[in-house]
Amino acid sequence: MSAPTINPNEAAHFGALAADWWDPHGSSAMLHKLNPVRLSYIRDQIDAHWHVDARERHPLAGRSAIDVGCGAGLLAEPLARLGAKVTGVDAAPENIAAARDHAAGQELVIDYHAGELAALPARTFDLVTSMEVVEHVTDPAAFVAELAARLAPGGLMILSTPNRTALSKLLLVEAAERIGAVPRGTHDWDQFLKPEELTGLMERAGLQVIDRTGLSPSPAKGFKLGGSEALNYLVAARHAG
User: Does residue 201 lie in a domain region?
Assistant: First the structure.
């Protein structure tokens, strides 16, 4: 069994937001704005990795996916609609309860689990995603190693996380929490990872980074891909060798 990586305080913080998770105007409003942009990136990487036609409605048909730190299912549900057999795992039982309820209402079959990723039965997945999670765990290296252990041969991993910069401290922590764009206590800037730090952890876990892109604010769309990585970035990887 791997060392535990769940921070109980973080789990409690996000668990307290569970009932509000699916409200696009509630405490998770920022996630609702981020999600379409992240999905666009994930779809592009899926198409490139498995040579899928961009017009294909179910590019993950016949494939398995796991979303780690899934919250109430904001990403797990679209992955299921793309055709994947989806597993979701989250530190907060309250989030998993909300995720199960919402999936049932959408008539989606998603296998949800509360607790440590390492506690799940030993199996691997074609697609491993973990969005805005690595900055909340107690041991990022152990967490990334466990993600890598869950990636099937020939599989694809996609992570996103805030960058540790002066700009992210100003906008993501101080300003965003002050104006209520994200709940107070959501971010600990000291836990943010610079791109070279995260890619280093991934490489030490036996992964090869195949793509990285910035995720930045857009006056027109809320957020956009590309450009500066100063606030947030996404990374795609596969097994090295």
Answer: yes
66 and 150 Cβ atoms separated by less than 8 Å: yes
In a domain? residue 3: no
pTM of the predicted structure, to 2 decimals: 0.88
Report pLDDT digits (tens) over 68-110.
999 999 999 999 999 999 999 999 899 999 999 999 999 999 9
Secondary-structure percent of the chain, ordered helix, strand, coil, rounded to 5: 40, 25, 35
Q: In what order do the strands lie in the sheet with 207-218?
A: 111-114, 85-90, 64-68, 125-131, 151-162, 232-239, 207-218, 222-225
> What is the DSSP track for 176-228?
HHHHTSS-TTS--GGG---HHHHHHHHHHTTEEEEEEEEEEEETTTEEEESS-
